[in-house]
Amino acid sequence: MAPITTVGIDVGGARKGFHAVALTNGSYADQLATADVDAIRHWCLNVIKAQLIAIDAPSRWSSNGRMRACERELMQRGIHCFASPSREQALHHPSDYYGWMLRGEVLYQALEPTHPVCTALPVAGEHCCIETFPHAITWHLRGGNAQAGQKRSQRRALLKQVGIDLATLSSIDLVDAALCAFTAQLAATGADCSVYGQPTEGIIVVPAGGLGLPV
User: How many other CB atoms are there within 10 angstroms of residue 78's CB atom?
Assistant: First the structure.
């Protein structure tokens, strides 16, 4: 069976940029930190040759200026999350509060020709992007026990438990990117995943849990 390479990307604003981690068959392969969308696109497509790319940023804007369906569903389960605005609200926010979401939009657009955003769980061999969310990933893998104040220790412990080398994951941004890549690996291999939301405003894909991990 051909190896499966997945990428997870943590999205920041224009100064912070993107932090990406690649896994091959679930094991650490490489990483990249850059503020350049073209550089990260080239890395994903031509260096890493990613099959599935999981991105921690909204894949769609709110249609009415209120929470998207996926965000409402997360909140209903007790999983705190950001509320995505409409694109117009993001563009005109006085402090550029949503600048990182606009950078996410640029990233999705750059990847769209080869890795369009999934509107459902990917099928075997499909090249696409999925939206995911590290806090929700942690919540599911830890049986509902995800504490924002302990995110560094909890998320690093999860990566260790699933066999991902932590040696070069020197920041929470890289840890989050690795969690996203792990989720992409599960989705790419047909493992049980949960989906929040509906296609018109974007779906969020996370592990369904049940991986036998201690909480």
Answer: 9
- Sole residue written with tokens 């224009």: 14
Overall pTM > 0.85:
yes
pLDDT for 104-115, tens place per residue?
Answer: 999 999 999 999
Mean pLDDT calculated for residue range 146-160: 95
What three-state secondary structure class fits 104? Answer: helix
- Token output for 84: 């995505």
Closest CA to 84 of 17, 52, 131, 128: 131
The tally of domains found in the chain comes to: 1
Classify residue 117 by its DSSP letter.
B
215 in a structural domain = no
3-state SS class at 70: helix
Residue 145 lies in a domain: yes
Question: Domain range holding 164?
Answer: 5-207
In the predicted structure, residue 215 carries a pLDDT above the cut 80: no
Rounded CA separation 165/16 (Å): 24
Distance between CA 184 and CA 205 in Å, rounded?
9
Max mean pLDDT among 41-45, 61-65, 94-98 falls in 41-45
